[in-house]
């Protein structure tokens, strides 16, 4: 642990949502302090050593934040580059800027993944209405047009059943650079949550099987319905991504399972919703694994002791809290003051048996 | 959950040590806020919504603290009665004052336990040097003289090998009222961590087997070496204590295992060091169970999925953190700024297999 931050050190986290909150709880278990930086309301602030409420262009606040901590990480990918430049001049950012830049741009991400030999959906860049026609000629229809940056949970996306939808789809991009992606015929969607330590060690959790509703993750089930060889492929390709990016921390990889093997849907350079089951199924969860990595500690044992189903609580699901609290499941609530449709407010982990 | 505090409610905790810290982490998982009240340095403050640093005789601070929360609990038993009176005039205190008063005084505790039909070590009150002679005549030697109040981890205690040690033992009490306890011949020491909800429901964790060194808990192992009938007795007597005290929250019961059955050593009206293994061995740990109870929520599922050994880190054990971090165990550090001999600074939970 020669590179390790000693207990009592402080970790800065950009973003103060539920992922930051659960990272803060994990850091606390290890005797580390957390400083949250968040322009908006920050559920993570209630469990953090310090909270800075300031915009990402407030240089004085960014400087004071960086100087108060030993290392900086993030739970939110869309921090402006100028803010990161300032922080990086003062403290290390883990995972590194390249990992962040790669995943911030859907086009760069696809090109990177293809470049290291992984399979992705057919894609083509689109930066004009005319370009969309050209892209459709390459990719075919049906397809999905997505902004290159800033999209999540189905926002900034438009489906094209045929070329007739091109006008509406292009308008939905509001002039932003976009990428057209072909559909992939898949049987299931799985994800791998993997971590890489500062020493290059890699650890991956068992793949989980995801079910989405309205573009939002609904459940993750471990173990996934997956052959042993595909499960091994999933873990190996996550390791390839981590190594290629010289990554430090936890990364989420979403995969389509197809008759011709695994297709990488997208990567997230952070702890991931589809890894929340690790809180109940493993000795060391994804949040602690990420904190260990960014603090320069050895990765922990992420082996799975139980089968788990994780279910997200979204919007009006908060009304189900009383019965869920009585159900014997592990309930996690994020302390969000406001409930809105489509907003994740918690999740539930149910153990379904000892690990198969 | 008609009596339940809704998510977003605030729980006040008297005491800001590691127990308060781990209670705060558990409350955060349930979307509840925590306000810590602590006169000294407070490791729990780093993970709390609010921290009040004030003495227990600061009426304005106590009032503001109580008014900021919905319910008050404690991780530290020796809060002055006047402070509790003030708080109780403003907010409910859970567990109740009677439970606290009973366990704050070793004599009341023994009399209470005996009164509900449980077996305790032979004892006699001592409030003078002369009274010690009388107590020795009843209890016999060897014996141990303890202050009635404020003792923990072997402090405020003096052993008497024979009546010849009476002068020194009495002097060690520094004039405080005391209790003389006879030794109990026991094979092992176990403890039961049990909880009672606001609805009267009782849940107990499996008994753990404790090993002490120099009067401080060193390890707790689950399952304990205990016959099934004694394990059932342990759980039943914990339930009897909880019901007799109309208790709400988690209680620790330390028991001696003797050839003639279980002898109650002492009770602690709070989460307990010998219950830290539940963080790694159960879906719902003792900290969340306590928070659920004091918040009026249903108790959670405390069933054990794994065998665990919990080891305390004490004083210079902090030097072992680097190898422990790499050992595959679950490490818990308390964020204490200062390491002192005999001071608990963390613990390690090792899974030794699926639950037997």
TrEMBL record, chains A, B:
A GO molecular function held by the record: phosphoribosylaminoimidazole carboxylase activity
Entry EC no(s): 6.3.4.18
UniProtKB keywords: ATP-binding, Ligase, Nucleotide-binding, Purine biosynthesis
InterPro entries, A to Z: ATP-grasp (IPR011761), ATP-grasp_carboxylate-amine (IPR003135), ATP_grasp_subdomain_1 (IPR013815), PreATP-grasp_dom_sf (IPR016185), PurK (IPR005875), PurK_C (IPR040686), PurT/PurK_preATP-grasp (IPR054350), Rudment_hybrid_motif (IPR011054)
Pathway membership: Purine metabolism; IMP biosynthesis via de novo pathway; 5-amino-1-(5-phospho-D-ribosyl)imidazole-4-carboxylate from 5-amino-1-(5-phospho-D-ribosyl)imidazole (N5-CAIR route): step 1/2
Binding-site residues, ATP: 106, 146, 151-157, 181-184, 189, 212, 265-266
Catalytic reaction annotation: 5-amino-1-(5-phospho-beta-D-ribosyl)imidazole + hydrogencarbonate + ATP = 5-carboxyamino-1-(5-phospho-D-ribosyl)imidazole + ADP + phosphate + 2 H(+)
GO cellular component: cytosol
GO terms (BP aspect): 'de novo' IMP biosynthetic process
Top-rank taxon, per record: Bacteria
ATP-grasp domain residues: 110-295
Subunit organization: Homodimer.
Assigned protein family: Belongs to the PurK/PurT family.
Function: Catalyzes the ATP-dependent conversion of 5-aminoimidazole ribonucleotide (AIR) and HCO(3)- to N5-carboxyaminoimidazole ribonucleotide (N5-CAIR).
Protein name per Swiss-Prot or TrEMBL: N5-carboxyaminoimidazole ribonucleotide synthase
Organism name: Wenxinia marina DSM 24838
Gene: purK
